[in-house]
Amino acid sequence: MMELGEERIGDAVLALLYLNLHEGQRAWKSLNWAAMERLHEKGLISDPVGRARSVAFSEAGLKESERLCRRLFAR
Q1: Would you tell me how many other CB atoms lie within 10 Å of the CB of residue 44?
Q2: How many domains is the chain built from?
Q3: Which of 3, 13, 28, 55 has the least C-beta neighbours within 10 A?
Q4: CA 30 → CA 67, 70, 74, distances in Å?
Q5: Which of 60, 33, 34 is nearest to 45 (CA)?
């Protein structure tokens, strides 16, 4: 397992919360629906619309998510 930089992860989470900004200073806790739909359209994740609380990665999506995690957060 790679060693992760908690500060960088915190920065990314804060930036993602900003994408969900509404009513001035509030943010939805879930990820941005438009961004999730774009990932689905690219074939990286399963359809985010539905009752399930999670999405499944495609093989390409899993590889890309690991690459990005290493690039953005690894120490």
Answers
A1: 19
A2: 1
A3: 3
A4: 22, 23, 24
A5: 60
pLDDT in tens, 33-54: 889 999 999 999 999 999 988 9
Cα separation of 71 and 63, whole Å?
A: 12
Domain contains 39: yes
Inter-residue contact 35 to 27 (CB < 8 Å): no
Q: Taking the model in full, what pTM does it have?
A: 0.82
